[in-house]
Amino acid sequence: MFKIYRSLVMSAAVLALTGCAFSSEKIDVNYTPAANPTVIAGASDIRVDVRINDVRARTDRVGSRTNGYGSELGAIALNQDVSTLIENAIETELRNRGYKLEGGKVVVQVEVHDFYNRFQTGFWSGTATSSVRLNVKIKDAGGNFIFSEMIAGQGTKESVQMMTGKNAKPTLEEALKNAMTSLFARDDFYAAIAKASASY
User: 33-56: buried (b, 16+ CB within 10 Å) or exposed (e) per residue?
Assistant: First the structure.
């Protein structure tokens, strides 16, 4: 009798952690720009063109619903395009720092290598961890790379009961925010934009 009771309790716990894990879902991931960014000296004279190339191994999802045993099941996808989301985030931060985005000669090339949430199961609850990795490159007029860096951001949420899109969303937003913060905290990024502009 005890074994049956224990089995029922474990099954209920797995179902609670799983939710409707086999079904797919779509979520909206939002980006909140940095508050009161510093305008970069000379930025108003520079026009920038942001180009995104999504090179992720899987572009059909940004995570998976996960059951209580840690198995990935139904896909978690975005309602918006990942490339467009990242492009808009970078363009917003550039514009807020004084750069022009129309007719840009300085090209900021961005390869999206990772934009994904992963759930890890625990005894009573799970953890949601998201990662964003972007390879950001800038060339001068001669085609030489003067900036090439892998920019990363992570987001984490503890004590997750339902391993679904609802709990993937805030960690993906945090990871994107942290990646943008990392990129736009780099003085060499602004220096490369200025150097590339001067080469034309």
Answer: eeeeeeebeebeebbbebebeeeb
Q: How far apart are CA 49 and CA 169, in angstroms?
A: 28
- In which residue are the tokens 């840009």 written? 104
Angstrom CA distances, 53 to 95, 102, 176, stand at 21, 20, 16
Q: Which residues pair with 72 in a beta bridge?
A: 66
Per-residue CA distances from 106 to 6, 29, 122, 142, 149 (Å): 64, 28, 47, 12, 17
pLDDT per position in the chain (200 positions), as tens?
A: 544 443 443 444 444 444 455 688 999 999 999 999 999 999 999 999 999 999 999 999 999 998 877 787 899 999 999 999 999 999 999 999 999 998 899 999 999 999 999 999 887 789 999 999 999 999 999 999 999 999 999 999 998 988 899 989 999 999 999 999 999 999 999 999 999 999 99
**Cα 34 from Cα 154, distance rounded (Å):** 17
Cα-Cα-Cα-Cα dihedral sign, residues 155, 23, 162, 127: negative
